[in-house]
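Appendix C: a fully annotated inverse folding record. The material below is reproduced so that readers can follow the format used throughout the book. The structure is listed first as tokens, followed by the designed sequence.
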């Protein structure tokens, strides 16, 4: 069985670090905590799990801190987590099985990263990231913000998942780092250009975000998944600027990179639905339900293939007074979100409507 070092960078994580370490302490052989300047009880809580706590002078560069954390590892493999990450009970068992069966020829192992959950506790969006890497390969982190781990060699996609369960978030940290980079005159990589645009969008700076998304896309150096997301984000900018024409063209632009994705179909469906073009909207929402996605796709947002298109189709068929079809789609949406207020309201509405139809017939 392989041995594993956990490496984490933390700062002021007293609310979540105990939860994280409790979920992983029985899975790893060593815990390394790199503190970048906590002023709360983060380090005291970490001491309950490990004595390997190191200080790192924060230089506004996440990759530098993560690379330092990897340098402290002494075991065969390195696992990395953030303080607001957790291995749920099911994934703890999967991790134990992975650890027992892992062939030491494997250089890096990817795991799903569950980013958000619906009202029923089901995963609604996820990405796949390399979480477990062989120490002697000396893989490096790259990027001041939204850093990524550059891996290669023999790779394995596992069925283990890490769940992201934040309690709070510093909304200005990342954009401030990017602003410092831009002001210093340091050129942004295509990836950083994309993520800086995301920060600008999140902060409501839509015109600036448009500039950086266009800069990113016209460079033709981006990862295809980021290219597609950039098209959707452009659409969000234009939507906020009430520019419907460019909203539509931005979604269609994503077709340059791949077949229509379910998210693109739902966005097109919404565009036509908003313009009361019901049949066109129905077409696109139905496409979202029939397109097959790779189960190991790096980005997945399940709402676009589950309850959302069904709920919208319910509204559209109701507009057309096709109540049986509308009710059927509402029931399909209810199978995913059974306690949703809108779905339950629709259920009662269609019970009344269909009851009247049956009486009249």
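Designed amino acids, in order:
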């Amino acid at each position: 069985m392989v041995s594993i070092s956990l490496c984490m960078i933390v700062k002021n994580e007293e609310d979540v670090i105990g939860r994280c370490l409790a979920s992983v302490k029985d899975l790893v052989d060593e815990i390394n905590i790199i503190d970048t300047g906590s002023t709360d009880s983060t380090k005291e809580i970490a001491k309950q799990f490990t004595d390997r706590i190191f200080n790192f002078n924060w230089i506004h560069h996440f990759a530098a801190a993560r690379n330092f954390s990897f340098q402290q590892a002494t075991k065969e493999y390195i696992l990395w987590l953030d303080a607001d990450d957790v291995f749920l009970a099911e994934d703890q068992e999967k991790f134990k099985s992975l650890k027992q069966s892992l062939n030491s020829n494997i250089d890096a192992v990817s795991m799903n990263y569950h980013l958000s959950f619906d009202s029923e506790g089901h995963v609604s969006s996820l990405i796949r990231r390399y979480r477990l890497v062989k120490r002697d390969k000396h893989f490096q982190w790259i990027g001041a913000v939204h850093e990524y781990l550059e891996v290669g060699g023999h790779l394995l996609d596992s069925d283990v998942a890490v769940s992201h369960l934040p309690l709070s978030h510093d909304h200005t940290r990342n954009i401030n780092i990017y602003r410092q980079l831009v002001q210093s005159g340091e050129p942004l990589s295509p990836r950083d250009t994309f993520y800086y645009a995301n920060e600008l969008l999140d902060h409501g700076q839509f015109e600036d975000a448009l500039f950086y998304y266009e800069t990113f896309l016209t460079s033709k150096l981006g990862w295809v998944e980021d290219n597609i997301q950039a098209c959707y984000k452009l659409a969000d900018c234009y939507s906020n600027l009430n520019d419907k024409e460019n909203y539509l063209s931005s979604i269609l632009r994503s077709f340059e990179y791949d077949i229509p994705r379910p998210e693109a179909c739902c966005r097109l469906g919404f565009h036509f639905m908003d313009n009361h073009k019901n049949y066109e909207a129905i077409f696109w929402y139905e496409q979202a339900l029939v397109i097959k996605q790779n189960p190991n796709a790096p980005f997945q947002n399940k709402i676009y293939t589950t309850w959302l298109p069904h709920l919208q189709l319910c509204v559209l068929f109701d507009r057309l007074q096709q109540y049986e079809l509308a009710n059927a789609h509402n029931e399909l949406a209810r199978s995913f979100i059974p306690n949703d207020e809108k779905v339950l309201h629709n259920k009662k509405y269609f019970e009344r409507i269909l009851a009247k139809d049956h009486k009249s017939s």
